[in-house]
Amino acid sequence: MSQPLSIFFTIMPSMSMPAELLASLKDDNFWRSLEAITKKAEKVMPQVTVASHKRGDSGTLDQRIEDRSEFARMGVKLATITGSPLLDPGCVPNRQLPVPNGMTHCVNLVNKIVRKDYGRPGQRVELAKLPYLLKRIRHLLRVFYDFKVGQRVHPDMVFCDWEKTFDVGLTLHQVGLCLQLDPPRLRAVMEAGGRELEVFLLDDDLDVGDFRKTAMIVEQRVAADVESEDSDRVAAGEIEQAAGKDLAAHVMAWFYGDMSVAFILNERAESTPDEKRWAQKAVKRLVQWSTSATLRGTLGDSLTDAMRPIYWSTPVLTKFCQAGGLAALFGDWVNSSCRDLCEEALKELPDVAWRNQTSASLAAITRELQAKLNQESVEIADTPIFIDACFSMYTHYGLAPLQKAGRRESPQDPVVFYYLAHHLKRLPPPANTAPQRADFAHLLADYTAMPRSMQKRYGWANLTVSGRWDCLDSYGCEAEGCPEKATLEQLRARRVRGVREPAVERRLEEWGSKAMACKACGRVAYCSAACQRVHWPTHKPECLKHRNAKRRL
Ligand SMILES: [Zn+2]
Ligand SMILES: [Zn+2]
Q: 533: CA distance to ligand 2 center in Å?
């Protein structure tokens, strides 16, 4: 609730800050309209939260489906305030009747076959049409977004006849919920749909589209290049931004998610071998989709919405975590409109849920924890969820994941894991006893109370060379006109990518690591006494303020 704006930009995959929005940041009108948007959003937020808790566990089947899909409606209502691409029409929205064999026709037919005509004579013949219809829907979404994002023209565009893209997603979501809440119907559908339906639901790769695939490749290349700079990351971000307009997978995410959850929830000891296989595939698929950083962004909150039943049940969640899904729970705690739901799940999470994590999964978890600190405040590090997570990770996997997370990828990441690993290695005796939860609690409390200048020094120690060059302004000596900084800036300008100069790099490293903190307040640091004298008139008011605050403690 404290950050309605960040929610705008996370609720839909394509809602990351557009270039025009960045350009308008200097415009007063922009700020006034942003204020109005924020006010509107704050009114809707409580409704979103209420909807996120609706489990649909009582009433008729239709009521339960309505309850469960309210969260999707509210999410779109919230996103609409800033203009959601999910409200875009198809290519031929103004036709009076649905185009035969078009999207509206197919979606309505799926809904009719599964929800309205179920139980009537001849249902098996009708249900057997589902694989064809679902593939047709997937295909038409692809045709539409290939045109929308890449202006690629396809003859089937004439079948893209919907009024709002969201309606396609919502109708399929309700079909998925219907099958999830009514196990005999799910069995009938799977029996009639056969192998073809199983492949569609549980084996086919997610259709992310060529544009997103390209964006993922560029992003991976930039991440793998140790010398990549901010400008490379910005360029990769712009490609991703353009690709983000492809919502084909996002629109289907509710349905795919609901179906996978259905297979997982319906598995019993007495299940048939088919049902067991479906459940197994469903877990694998959900883990993969929900923990991959790139797919997660593609699927957005639709997937989180569909996964709520997993988060509601501790036994199901524990199994899901042990299959590799633990990182998804942390991710949704940090970055979804289900954060308080996930917070409750994390508080109840048994330690055994930490078993069987891969190093990739642990890396994803630590990334999410860092993001949480960045997003809210360092004080989060001193809360039970954070302490438990670090302690469980340590008891199951030792120092390695903490150390690995301590080598940060981005200069903006907090240094909490570096700090933890650094101090855990040198905890005072008794040396034979392993660190306890209380030790973690103390260390993390100390971390949150650490003076700013010291946090910076840890941060500097932990940056890559190109990170240090990029961040000269955020670290090291804070005196304006620091002569050493001026020299380093000159050296930076002369730098040639690919050519390493050890002496220069050492000089750079020392400028940041040897800076001495102001003894009175600990908030600023300088490379020399001369620099401190120069900066004193600027620093004095801040210093006195913090000195007084410290005295009161
Ligand atoms: Zn200096
Ligand atoms: Zn000071």
A: 11
Question: Which residues keep their CB under 5 angstroms from ion ligand 2?
Answer: 518, 520-521, 543
For residue 414, give both structure tokens: 């907090």
Rounded CA-CA distance 453/334 in Å is 27
Ligand 1 centroid–CA 460 distance in Å is 15
Classify residue 118 by its DSSP letter: T
Q: Which numbered ligand comes closest to the C-alpha of 487? A: 1
Q: Which ligand has the shortest distance to the CA of 538?
A: 2
* Element housing 525 (H / E): strand 525-526
State the first-to-last Cα distance of the chain, in angstroms, to the nearest integer: 30
**How far, in Å, from the CA of 525 to the mean position of ligand 1?**
9
Question: Kind and range of the H or E element at 517?
Answer: strand 516-517
CB of 401 closer than 8 Å to CB of 363 = yes
Give me ligand 1 centre to Cα 548, in Å.
26
Nearest ligand to the C-alpha atom of residue 477? 1
Return the pLDDT at 410.
65
- Ligand that comes closest to the CA of residue 529: 1
Instruction: Tell me, in angstroms, the distance from the centre of ligand 1 to residue 417's CA.
Output: 28
User: Is 85 within 8 Å of 145 (Cβ atoms)?
Assistant: no
- Two tokens at 314? 């501790």
How far is CA 376 from each of CA 42, 294, 373, 440, rounded to the nearest angstrom? 18, 23, 5, 20
Tokens of 35: 């204020």
Distance 409 CA to ligand 1 centre (A): 27
Q: Does 7 or 267 have the greater pLDDT score?
A: 267
Which tokens is 206 given? 């997610």
Distance 482 CA to ligand 1 centre (A): 4
DSSP 223-279: HH-TT--HHHHHHHHHHHHHHTT--HHHHHHHHHHHHHHHHHHT--TT--HHHHHHH
* 377 CA to centre of ligand 1 in angstroms: 29
Read off the amino acid at residue 206: L
Cα Rg, the chain, nearest whole Å: 27
CB-count burial class (<10 Å; 0-12, 13-18, 19+) for 531? buried
Most confidently predicted of 281-285, 431-435, 542-546:
281-285
Q: Domain segments of the chain: what residues?
A: 1-209+246-290, 313-450, 464-552
Tokens of 541: 């008011």
Q: Is the pLDDT of residue 299 over 80?
A: yes
- What is the rounded distance in angstroms from the CA atom of residue 12 to the CA atom of residue 76? 9
Give the single-character DSSP code of 432.
Answer: T
Q: What local confidence, expressed as pLDDT, does residue 93 receive? A: 67
pLDDT confidence of residue 10: 36
- What's the CA dihedral at 268, 271, 274, 276 to 10 degrees? 30
**Spacing, Cα 520 to ligand 2 middle (Å):** 5
